[in-house]
């Protein structure tokens, strides 16, 4: 319920907000809201857009839509745009226009009428319905041609300031079309078909500032056509048919600053054509038919800054004073005319002191006069390209101190002399391409220290005149002084080397050497060129046959901090369209190209999508990246005639090819290269390996493949081959031996044994007729057992023509194979059985050790070396128990330990009812019993916990354990483990950290014996413990009689403090032990030490 309630509230809130917005629209624009909310015209749909009253209206017409968009901007400017589907064959229905005319669009500032055919009524009447009296800007663009407009089209639109009538194919304009537009400032009439400009059409628009009449068919202006446009600033008349410009046409345009007369048919100009246009700053006369400029034509245009006379192909002469008054001129374009060296004199440009750009390109200049540019102190760009200039004198440019760009491309220059550029030290860009330059003299470029761009493409440069650097042997180019160069274009020349000075240009970003005569390239040649990461080296279309990147690891090694290396390398090298020889050098290039060369930074990105191999013929036309790496080969440096040697870097192999050489012995001189292995191909010769000296193979440590196929060898040759049985010694790296297509029928067993010991070696044995019977059993077993190592196993045949792969040892030798078959089955079974036994022994290792010890078996592995071997304590164990458990001790433990079955160890036990001295203090007896025993065995029952002496015995034993740091305390749990609440904390702690024995364990006695001191030498059956003790006592008595000092037992670890009748454990003083018998010699009681002194 709560969820539904929240959802209903949200919906209600949304509807409320929407209603509020619609009410605002209705309040501000009631009529438009009413139109959008009614369905009077079912073919139209109206959509309110914003609360400002913006809406979008779409009306269907045929298969298209008429759309109307109304927008109110924040600055109060309203715009209304109507757009129709262009090329719509169905005429607009009158109802649509009626609907549009009814939309309240008062105070519209901008009206756009795009691609809509005009309605049947006049435009003024249609606009009158829309109340456009406040419109300032109107655009009328029709899809269908409009040859003319109704003379009342803009009536009552007095506020218009901008009218755009472009691209309507208008041919005629009524004289009174703009009578009501006295405020008009911009008028667009370009890209129509107007032919004549009436003398009255612009009479009522005196405030006009921009008039666009370009791309029409205007041939003439009637008298007074522009007379009332004194405020006109910009006039565009380009792309018309004007052949004459009367002097009075521009007479009234006193404020004109921009005039474009380009692309007309003007053949001449009146000397007074521009005399009243004193504010003119830009004048374009390009692409006309002018033959000359009258002297004084620009006498009043001292404000002119840009003048273009380009593409006046008949203009060949400039009169002396034509440019005399253009003291503000900045840009002068005289290109594509017919000027030659006689067209100018020293005064032609002398007054152009503010000129910065002069374009004289594509003329007929064959030379330059030294005084042409003497007054152009501010000139920065000089274009002399595509002329006929063949020589340049030393002082030609001396006055151009600020020149930064010089274009001399497309001329006939052959040499660049020493001091040509002496006066233009500020030059940054020099263009000399498309000449015939063969030599640039040393020092000619010395004065251009600020040069950043030079283009020398399509010349005949070789740079043979360069100096040789004495330090690295590199030759220096004529550009050695221009260390600030950023771009060098030397394409389509005759350059055959890379020059050392290019590596000193730290700002170089592009070096174009395409279409030159470079024949080889090494990574060491290009590494030093430009440290910038966005550098491009263009080496396309040279004669580069070999690209060596073998030393890339040395010169392009990894960065100290790999994090500074960009993921995408920007340093590019272009190598397309070179006659590449795909040898081993190309292999390293492909590795570098694929960024797979280990230990290399790969600072270059090789771009070679169109690079293909030209040689060898087998790889011609194949892209190097698609070549199998094993096909990249090159000749070895040494000669091994008559054999051939090739280096294959993909797997670091030397191919020693000696096939078809009529050899009778194996060559003793083999190629060697550090880190490379050798493949020997000795096939199709007449080598008799039976007569080969074994010392011939001393050179073969690196041989991995030995091909001896097709040599006519026989089985009898193996008889004298000691090297064949020691193949792995003669050829330690051999992994393939080819003996195919010889005359073998068997192989000695010794050789087969050698083969079985070399598991990495594979063989080719087909093409021989092998004897398939029991006499050749060793070979057959090898073939069937190691068939994966026999590369042509499926092609091996017997001497009877049968395929060996289709036979088996069972068929060829059944009797021998039967025993082998059983043995093969038995061995895995036996191994599995041993494995299972080992697993069982490991999992039950404690029980098994106890079991073995109790049976005195394998004592060497179950009895560890212990300190008890030299322990002088009398007893093996002191049995601590409650008197209520005396029956269990006497009947179960004592007989099994003191009088065990034959073969089991005997133990000396200390029992308080038997071995304690009568009348002695019990705590002292306990301490002496623990101290004189190697183990203390506690029989833990509830009776034991109820015994005060039992607890004291445990604590004494526990303290002895802590002192000795050896596990000498054994606890036997008889029955269930007593509750913890009856145990003191020491006993609980001991039981939680140590294991104990349970009497009901089936291996209880075995475990107990194993926990007691180990005895390797068992006491002879029938001897008694008491007799042993007596013997010990007698030996001690004899020592006393002979004056020997009595033995001292180790200091007792514990004594009982008898003061104040309290019993607790304290550390005792040392005790001197005296051995005094307490009974007759036949007594079985042991001797104990006396009390402390």
UniProtKB/TrEMBL annotation:
GO annotations of cellular component type: plasma membrane
Alphabetical UniProt keywords: Glycoprotein, Leucine-rich repeat, Membrane, Receptor, Repeat, Signal, Transmembrane, Transmembrane helix
Membrane as UniProt keyword: yes
Record domain TIR: where: 873-1012
GO biological process: signal transduction
Signal peptide region: 1-18
TM regions (residue ranges): 822-842
InterPro entries cross-referenced by the UniProt entry: Cys-rich_flank_reg_C, Leu-rich_rpt, Leu-rich_rpt_typical-subtyp, LRR_dom_sf, TIR_dom, Toll_tir_struct_dom_sf
Subcellular location as annotated: Membrane
Record Pfam families: LRR_1, LRR_8, TIR_2
Membrane as UniProt keyword: yes
Membrane topology: Single-pass type I membrane protein
Molecular functions (GO terms): signaling receptor activity
Family note: Belongs to the Toll-like receptor family.
UniProt cross-references to PANTHER family, sorted A to Z: PROTEIN TOLL-RELATED, TOLL-LIKE RECEPTOR
Protein name (database record): TIR domain-containing protein
Lineage, opening ranks: Eukaryota, Metazoa, Ecdysozoa, Arthropoda, Crustacea
